[in-house]
Amino acid sequence: MSNVDLLGRRNFIKGMGAAAGVAIATPAMAISEKADGVKWDKEVEVLIIGSGFAGLAAAIEATRKGAKDVHIFEKMSYFGGNSAINGGLFAAPGTPMQKKEGVQDSVDRMVADQMKSGRGVADEGLLRHVAEHAVEALQMTMDAGSEFHPYLQQLGGHSVARTYQTTVSCGAGITQPLYKECKRIGVKTHNRSKFEGFIIGEDGKVEGVKMREGYYFKEEDSGKVVYIRAKRGVIAATGGFAQNINLRMAQDPTLTSEVGCTNAPGATGEGMYEMFRIGAIPVHMAHIQSGPWASPDEGGFGYVSNYSIYNFPHSMAINRLTGKRFMNEIADRKTRADAELSCRDEKGEALPPILITSYKHSKKHPNTKKVIKYNVGWKFDTVEELAKHFEVPVKPLKAQIEEYNSYVKSGDDKQFGKNMTKAKDKFIEAPFTVVRLWPKVHYCQGGVQITTKAEVKDSFTGQPIKGLYAAGEVCGGVHGVSRLGSCSIPECMVMGMTAARSVMEA
Amino acid sequence: MNNKMNTALALVLGCCLALSAQARDKRDYHEMVYDSGCKSCHDQGTKTYPSDGSCLQCHDIDELAKQTARSEEDKWQNPHNNLHYGKDLPCVECHGEHAPKKPICSNCHTFKFDKHKE
């Protein structure tokens, strides 16, 4: 906690007189509580807030390090957070599959890729720490029963193939095994338990938390508040804030409610707010990543996201009002997301653009079958048919297809400078598969500043706040401007494990 | 005398209206449960929701998972044993008793659940 006495504000308020005091007192009442005089309702050894990759990994590691009484508190009724619905892509250097496939990789190489993606402002120390321990985290998932595809993938921005993916192509392929492992080794899990504030000791140490048990999401008065003392420490693994429209708009005004979200509903950022309240340093809050690959025809990440990611290199994105392209389909995420948001009808209303691909090439991805089956993607035999369905002017569209195909042939996109290497010989021709595009907020690079021991730094002292650790997407500064795909799971798990080790050493 | 009768009549009518209103928010397949009283489900009192385990007094999750199993390709779309949460998702996340509810899957997917009663 800060050396500044936050509670001293009450004395100041009293001195202002009754009328002013009443008005100002309302926000002041929502403040971290001091531990002296608190009547604890229960006591636990290690207290973990959040049940995604970071929280689950922390619980397992703490138990392995000898903790006898580990508790995970989750505000939703189900466990897993965003981790249970993500793509299940796990990057790590020096893995068994890399050795088997003869891929030369290293901690240095992975860190270099991430620093480049982060535009040089990522935290090299944290990235290095994560890369150094990523194989340990991968092993933890395998020990718990996770299964991966028998091949490595090389995602955008990575210089070599280093990404594992679960056989179900989803993070649940990891969260479910980790959750079951937690149960097996005796970790206590509590759903419908919303963290509502820290309890601070005399020396500024986090002694415990205020928890609302029996909580129903969005019913803020539901359940009842209990005070839980954490003997060893509190680990905040509460995830990002992509679902908090007010906060994301404060950082980036383009992220209005019109921009959807791939996240689970609970990703609203209160855990992070509470850490700021007791002095944590906010880092990179405005670096919010939107997925330009998302679809307005399904919620969250859905099936179109992976379909689009695969097909962007050899596809053409079309503004439906003009029948023309409007962006480089493989530019960075922010550029594409903003370009998509600018697609409007005559009245200025959102008009989600379409992505046109030759079926000959899209059918190679398993999601093509799925997007068509679930009516979030379409197949057409003629340009006329396609144009009619999406109300695109036919003549300019035909001209655009012809023009784009000339770039495929020449290897030089004179319209938007797209790198045509991966589009070589992949002409846009019938039959076509088409999806609609609209960006969704996907990942918040911002959060609280932490050390390589997962300690939360205090704004005023620059020292760790005693008794408090944080791991996963709630932390800021790790990835810089842009996070590389498949680098979130290793970060969440390694820092969860690190937080557990730190709490057991404290 | 007339005032008392009017008051009594108003109360009776009020009760009838209340009953009518309640009837619209009931499930016909739970008629027998209602006959047994509110506490059949409301194991935490009627001022709050039933506990997450309340439904399991009568329903078996393993049996339900078998009943709603899907073919191999779609096996993880089984609402009672799904990819993201296995068999651990509380029943009330998809099934509302006194208010309509959609399957939680529809937040992100367009799967068909033909037998689901909103």
UniProtKB/TrEMBL annotation, chain A:
<keyword id="KW-0560">Oxidoreductase</keyword>
<dbReference type="InterPro" id="IPR027477">
    <property type="entry name" value="Succ_DH/fumarate_Rdtase_cat_sf"/>
</dbReference>
<comment type="similarity">
    <text>Belongs to the FAD-dependent oxidoreductase 2 family. FRD/SDH subfamily.</text>
</comment>
<keyword id="KW-0285">Flavoprotein</keyword>
<dbReference type="GO" id="GO:0010181">
    <property type="term" value="F:FMN binding"/>
</dbReference>
<dbReference type="InterPro" id="IPR006311">
    <property type="entry name" value="TAT_signal"/>
</dbReference>
<dbReference type="InterPro" id="IPR003953">
    <property type="entry name" value="FAD-dep_OxRdtase_2_FAD-bd"/>
</dbReference>
<dbReference type="GO" id="GO:0016491">
    <property type="term" value="F:oxidoreductase activity"/>
</dbReference>
<protein>
    <submittedName>
        <fullName>Flavocytochrome c</fullName>
    </submittedName>
</protein>
<dbReference type="GO" id="GO:0030313">
    <property type="term" value="C:cell envelope"/>
</dbReference>
<feature type="domain" description="FAD-dependent oxidoreductase 2 FAD-binding">
    <location>
        <begin position="46"/>
        <end position="489"/>
    </location>
</feature>
<dbReference type="InterPro" id="IPR050315">
    <property type="entry name" value="FAD-oxidoreductase_2"/>
</dbReference>
<dbReference type="InterPro" id="IPR036188">
    <property type="entry name" value="FAD/NAD-bd_sf"/>
</dbReference>
<dbReference type="Pfam" id="PF00890">
    <property type="entry name" value="FAD_binding_2"/>
</dbReference>
<keyword id="KW-0274">FAD</keyword>
<dbReference type="InterPro" id="IPR010960">
    <property type="entry name" value="Flavocytochrome_c"/>
</dbReference>
Automatic annotation (TrEMBL), chain B:
<dbReference type="Pfam" id="PF14537">
    <property type="entry name" value="Cytochrom_c3_2"/>
</dbReference>
<keyword id="KW-0249">Electron transport</keyword>
<feature type="signal peptide">
    <location>
        <begin position="1"/>
        <end position="23"/>
    </location>
</feature>
<keyword id="KW-0574">Periplasm</keyword>
<dbReference type="GO" id="GO:0042597">
    <property type="term" value="C:periplasmic space"/>
</dbReference>
<dbReference type="InterPro" id="IPR012286">
    <property type="entry name" value="Tetrahaem_cytochrome"/>
</dbReference>
<feature type="domain" description="Tetrahaem cytochrome">
    <location>
        <begin position="35"/>
        <end position="110"/>
    </location>
</feature>
<keyword id="KW-0479">Metal-binding</keyword>
<keyword id="KW-0732">Signal</keyword>
<keyword id="KW-0813">Transport</keyword>
<keyword id="KW-0349">Heme</keyword>
<keyword id="KW-0408">Iron</keyword>
<protein>
    <submittedName>
        <fullName>Cytochrome C</fullName>
    </submittedName>
</protein>
<dbReference type="InterPro" id="IPR036280">
    <property type="entry name" value="Multihaem_cyt_sf"/>
</dbReference>
<dbReference type="GO" id="GO:0046872">
    <property type="term" value="F:metal ion binding"/>
</dbReference>
